[in-house]
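step: validate -> pass
step: tokenize input -> pass
step: predict -> running
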Amino acid sequence: MKHQGIKTPTICNIFDTEGELAAAVASVEAVEKFLTSSWIQQSKQNIFSAPVMMVDANLSLPALKASCQCTLAAESNTPVWFEPVSVAKSRRIVSVVKYVVLPH
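step: predict -> pass
step: emit ->
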């Protein structure tokens, strides 16, 4: 999917000698600007039919809530997994914790 004026998200990971993540830099502006709660509402039919929904903390708080509320509205019992992506952004789970069955 392309959208004029929004660049593809990129990430650079640095791993230590044991294969563990030592540092990372990410640019996720596209996720923050394009995946809005209104866009998610437009895509809710796809969400309704998903066997599992995975969200990550790069989504804005309104987008996270909209994603999780789509599964609730569908009464689909779709499990929601949450990827915290960073310590700072992991706090966003507070707004959707009642929907989440498994944080990464």
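step: describe -> The two ends are 26 Å apart (CA to CA).
step: cleanup -> pass
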